[in-house]
Amino acid sequence: MKYTQIVLPLLLLINSIVPAVVQAQEDVITDVNKQENGYLLLDKGLQFRITDAINSMYNFDFEKVERGFLVMRYTYPEHPLPYFLMGLSQWWKIVVAVDNKSHDALMLKYMDLTIEKAEKMLGDNPENKEAAFFLAGAYGFQGRLHSERKNWTSSTFASRNALKYLELSRGEEELNPELLLGDALFNYFSVWIPENYPLLKPLMLLFPKGDQQLGLKQLEEVAKSSFYARVEAQYFLFRLYATEEKKPFKALEITSYLHSKYPNNPYFHRHFARQLYAVGRGREAKDVSLEILKRIDEKWTGYEATSGRYASFFVAQNYERMGQSENSMPYYLRSVAFGNELDAQESGYYLFSLLQVGKILFKQGNKKEAKRYLDLVKENSKRRHPANKEAREFSKKNKLL
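== Tol-pal system protein YbgF ==
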């Protein structure tokens, strides 16, 4: 866990420079010679032309987006851009279900190719900020994936390289607005880490001192004004508002926007449902969640067990709060099934679903099955967990020991 808390926030910083690269897509191939006159990423006409392609990527229309990437690869075989974009496409497939490793090899392969092409560009011109930009992004994503997989040596190596090239990419005034997201994340997490993990304070002395509130303001600025990094800033903001900053209504505002803008993105979809539930809008959370479950059943791209576990629980909770326990039971059981599919028996959604099933069964007079579900809560959780405590108290009160 120690390595996770050091490496991952730093990799979040590195990942923040990547959205600028994401934007340069299909229409960049219209002028092969444009590269001679400046960096491809800074072409204003390109920014205007690529909006639809970017929306398609965030909206999980991978087939449409990747066709464009393949054309770019054919047109720019020696430029890192198409290889990076194809790797990034694989990364978004990983984000929605991080335990699924089926996209890892291809993602890492494309990032290796990105590094190879960018290193050649940098070798030809050591002052090439765009090449450094791609190197920082590729190493950053590799490092983040390795940290998710607990490959600490590879993760540390990649993060060091990413930080080196991030620094090298600075100094191009027109790139600075996009790099602000990196500064924001570093400012925030360089303070957050030692406050939440005191044992890591000596290690954090190796890095510059951050300013957490400045980091939050910078994130808000990028979310409002940046062209390239806007969605990525919003992504980090709603996560921070929902957890660390305890501002659920602000998180809801952002997730509502992201879901309306990218309605087929399962990550944004499930977090919109989660924030509706968090602020007490249970009926709306139920309706949104039922749509998620429908899409899982219809096998929409990216809709899988993680989203299903959330959605099933929110539907069950709403039915129960409306006094309809008989309707809530199937959804609690479905949340349990999704948890088993994910091997996530220690998660809160799993444990509280088991707990509620046990209570409903007891109410129905099925004490034997009620005891079995309550025992499962205790077996899969530590004694201090709220679900464990509630299961023990309920069992004792109702003589199910």
